[in-house]
Amino acid sequence: MPEPEEPYTVEDLLRRHAPQVLGALVRRYGHFDLAEDAVQEALLAAARQWPGTGVPDNPRGWLIKVAARRLTDLLRAEESRRRREESAARLAPRDAFTAPPPGEGRAPSEDDTLTLLFLCCHPELTPPARIALTLRAVGGLTTAEIARAHLVPEATMAQRISRAKQRIRGVPFRRPDPADHDARLAAVLQVLYLIFNEGYTATSGTALRRADLAHEAVRLTRAVHALLPRDGAVTGLLALMLLTDARAPARTGPDGELVPLDEQDRTLWTRAAIDEGTALVEEALSRGPAGAYQLQAAVAALHDEAAAPEDTDWPQILALYDVLVARFPEPMAELGRAVAVAMVDGPAAGLREVGLLEDRLKGHHRLDAVRAHLLERAGDREGALTAYRAAAGATLSEPEARYLRGRAARLEG
Description:
Elements: H1 10-29, H2 32-53, H3 59-78, H4 81-90, H5 111-120, H6 127-137, H7 143-150, H8 154-167, H9 181-200, E1 204-205, H10 211-227, H11 232-245, H12 271-285, H13 292-305, H14 314-327, H15 331-345, H16 347-355, H17 358-361, H18 365-378, H19 381-394, E2 396-397, H20 398-412
Parallel strand pairs: 1-2
Helix pairs in contact: 1-2, 1-3, 1-5, 2-3, 3-4, 6-8, 6-9, 7-8, 9-10, 9-11, 10-11, 11-12, 11-13, 12-13, 13-14, 14-15, 15-16, 16-18, 18-19, 19-20
């Protein structure tokens, strides 16, 4: 029987199936750039038709069939008239793109999505291109969202993605060779981390969280972990995602408003995810020097283990951040460390650490939000008001902006 689709909206279904449809076409035909164009046209056709006609019994099969037809047209358009009929005969498998009968598994496997991840992280691509292409092809983010995540203009990101697609044109659709496996895996994990972050806290829009993206990142990371169960970075990343996403049920209020960590109802946190994530991070830390994902997961575990905010082991969190920023210096990790410094040594100490990040994070709403919170704790009402307003004006997320404006309004009141 086809898998049940009732809990999903049309948008959910399209995002869920898009990478698998793309993987199926690239696996059979190659031509990544043309295949993605064909899939996008199939998605647009579905978005127009399905709300009126209803979702097909096999939405993935429907998308593959429509995209394959469009891809055949695109490929034919690139052939000379002399080769057109020969090419068309080769490009039309008799039954490969028909919807599978009940009980048959002709639909593309989820493994296609994982292979697509490795293709997007091909060694001929630069790291920024790998990330951008995978977010576009597998994560389903728009070019504008990817550009905002990387702090570059949208036109620049569009050119980067286009060049990346051309670069891997003709690359076989298969798993990487052993020689470049480690480099490709590191890029894949970074991309999965970015997809999860976009799902857990959307960079823009009316919803704080894009659960489909977060769940897809967890699913794909589980798939990588099933293949590489003893890899510390893979295990650490899966642990980090589970421990972070466990708090999702308590992150928003009845009207979708943001609820900060220290105000969340911790009884709503997903205990099974916390238990699994804690076991995974303990396993990862026992296998030698900790990488960035293992250290961040250990921080997340300490937060999740605290029954109440005042029970949080901030000295231990600060110690982990000290190791993290020493080994992997990165502005957002240093901003997290600044919060930990404030919780251990007071808001004035935290503000000094925030000041050191001004050049690298100037204008970023998270820097202003942390500054505002610490200024409020320090008793600087006017300074906190200014920082809250600056943060609210800089974020593209409506729930975050409402939360920050609410904090400012509370100070004004």
